[in-house]
Amino acid sequence: MTLTIGIIGAGRIGKIHVDNLRGIQQVRVKSVSDVVIEHLESWAVEKHIEVLTTNYYDILKDPEIDTVFICSPTNTHANIIKEAALAGKHIFCEKPVSFTIEETEEALEVVKKAGVKLQVGFNRRFDSNFRKIRHLVQDGQIGNPHILRITSRDPQPPGVDYIRSSGGLFMDMTIHDFDMARYIMDSEVVEVYASGAVLVDLAIGEAGDIDTAVITLKFANGALGVIENSRRAAYGYDQRLEIFGDKGAAHADNNRANTVEVSTAEHVTKEKPLYFFLERYTQAYIDEVKEFAAAILGNQPVICSGFDGIQAERIAKAASQSLETGVPVKLEQVGRSTATY
Hints:
37% of the residues lie in helices and 24% in strands. With 341 residues, it is α/β, with parallel strands linked by helices.
């Protein structure tokens, strides 16, 4: 069996998925759509893309295509998910599904009724270091979890135009950490308290967002979580995680170009963290599409479902409400807590 795929959106992440999918046996990337394609023509030839179109309906109408990747702007995700599901296509969608819980719930209901698979693109679940820590938690090696700490700092803030359309720090950046918190702890978040500030770029504040945040979480299993974010770390892409329990602790450090540490009488030095997310999560991006393809070909559950997607969105919304009100927000106040997708 061959999985025939169409890619909707040929920006940076769409092109990454094309490259990674082309390395998988039993996968054929047939079509790519984008609103502007003139600059993509030579790229499409190089990548052996058979159809390049400005109209993504060409992909949805193609009976050969059984799976679509939605890599277009977030404000298009929910509608395309519904259209793809109704067309009988399996779906991989970049995060978040939408900017509103209501839109996401509606899209997931259509997916559920159509009986197709949907995976949300939380690539950090596929990082080998974070997976190792999840397995340690599941195997009971650190005992009952007490505290989860996630550090996530970007090397440079995005442009203000991006900030205005991103959905805000919690929906754009921290949402990865919200998903990681649920994934590592294997327990639902029940309460969120968020503090934020503008310390990196005043223009971000003028655009209505924050660039620095600390979020505390309470989990259903009684454990606590702390997430801290910054839009700028001068030394590179800072991605660390620690879980502490009654039997011990486990820590995942940053990835570096090499692990050599030099010690002299004057100093001890080692390489700075890898600078950008594409370097840090290269293998995770490969593995997430490999496992998605395997789930479809083997008719198995996907690793990161629509339910996982909406839960991360609910936490992001709760964080925004907490930041605005200055008080903790319970997840039961944000969207439906009992729906299954």
